[in-house]
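Researcher: Checking consistency across runs. Here is Aldehyde dehydrogenase again:
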Amino acid sequence: MAELVEHGQLFIGGEWTDPLGRDVIEVISPHTEEAIGRVPHASTADVDRAVAAARRAFDEGPWPRLSLDERIEVVGRIKDGIAARHDEIARVISAQNGSPYSWSVLAQALGAVMVWDAAITVARGFTHEERRDGVLGRILVRREPVGVVAAVVPWNVPQFTAAAKLAPALLAGCTAVLKPSPESPLDAYLLGEIAREAGLPEGVLSILPADREVSEYLVGHPDIDKVSFTGSVAAGRRVMEVAARNLTRVTLELGGKSAAVVLPDADVGTAVAGIAPAAWMNNGQACVAQTRVLLPRARYDEFADALAAAAGALTVGDPLDPATEVGPLVAKRQQRRALDYIRIGQEEGAKILTGGGRPPGLERGWYVEPTLFGDVDNSMRIAREEIFGPVICLLPYDDEADAVKIANDSDYGLSGSVWTADVEHGLDIARRVRTGTYSVNTFSLDMLGPFGGYKNSGLGREFGPEGYGEYLEHKMIHLPADA
């Protein structure tokens, strides 16, 4: 059994502070099903303290009044601190949520460094103030920080999503309260240490691990000016409902059921090599995962066989083993959910091509085999609902118009990809699929461009100047004629 990591304090306003409540969050390893950590469960009284500190820091403190270059200097030290401790961060995240260590290094830890770095690049190049010729005279348009931000992040990519919210918010001059998921609070303590060492002024950042009830209290707090939330559609709707009581601005990054469209001219090896890691990334626990793969009927068997072979070759096991490609799901409820969907898919008439249960030899831990369903119809629940596990659906299509129709026939619109020998043809498909991000003959997420979704996949954008702008208000100042 790994040594139990215990933290007895909360990070409030930049200081390690005793909690006001007595509740505790126990962190359970999804590999061993044993406790690996224990941290305080923030109370609503702790939220009040954190928000009050953030309010004071924004209204009266130096942070919003520093120059952009001064804020960049501090934020740059946070980025460098994460980079210096990236292996430690990756191991902590893998131990908490089952993410394979190799993926945690690249996506969880170094991916977060890239987010912080890209946000600095965007802020440096952003126009915060400009003069324009108005209809009635000269005007000055300013972009000013929105205020106190509640950043609510999920368990699947905790540092990456925290960076997506905190980096632009802090650079814009906002103060923030970060609310990590109760499944993955341990890495947030490392972030608190790094932020403190970087020299953030008093009150600028607080970190409060807590459950949904306390999260709802934070989101509905009257002194919060902006909520940035990543999570499920159901939770996103609730966040929007609660925030609406105070007309609090919201950014919501929610779920996905993204389609990878394989065109008839695609190369089998290239397409499968790109789709497989995009489908089963992070054990299938990724909102952008390519969970629907659309195949031309004329080449369906060829591609299905190749994808089944790729799935069957994935190494499943201990998330901290560098050889592991698929680890356990984060919690027993997620394992049960995935297995329930596998049963539902069979009842609906889909055919299991590989996987379909617990991996042999892994009786302990919340594991599910990488599973590939064939002969899936887009009306089936396994094709329409987000499973958030290693379960992928293959859907045949008749022609290109049918493929685009199936790709768009979803309540979601977050990601997608197309695989073809003709890049310009692929770009035409990309323009026709209604989704917030798309890839042609690759799968990627660029931190200098806007990321977000259509339909139930969310509101607003993260990354790039569009994401940075989510943390700014626009002010118009009328100038005299001779200005």
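Researcher: Does this match what you'd expect to see?
Model: One thing to look at in this run: The chain is about 40% helix and 20% strand.
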